[in-house]
Amino acid sequence: MSESVSINAADWVNLPDIAERFGLPITKVHQLIKEGSLLAVRREGVLRVPAELVANDIVLKHLPGVLTLLRDAGYNDEEALRWLYTDDDSLPGKPAVALGGDLAREVKRRAQALAF
């Protein structure tokens, strides 16, 4: 992903820390990114993941599905991250934050609607 992605994630987690938190080898974290279950961007030359996307030591339940829907709508990874971190007045903030709560299915519905 491009170093120029400009999003306002509250915090960033590097891949070795994710591997440790998940109890996985680093190669499995790279595989999650490669297969589209997780998004990462370079910050200061290091691949990092927005902390909201890896809450409770797991990838958010609905994230892989939302990423698939966004890709089906023609979004690349950079655009998907921007969509996830763009404030939405009808949600409490950003879709990425809402994915971790009761509005996760609503975020998924909105991502699905982008394809139409």
UniProtKB/TrEMBL annotation:
The residue ranges crossing the membrane are none
- Domain called DNA-binding protein Rv2175c wHTH: residue spans: 10-53
Q: Where is the Rv2175c C-terminal domain?
A: 61-115
Origin: domain of life = Bacteria
Q: Which InterPro entries match?
A: Rv2175c_C, Rv2175c_wHTH
**Gene Ontology MF terms in the entry:** DNA binding
Name the record gives this protein: DNA-binding protein
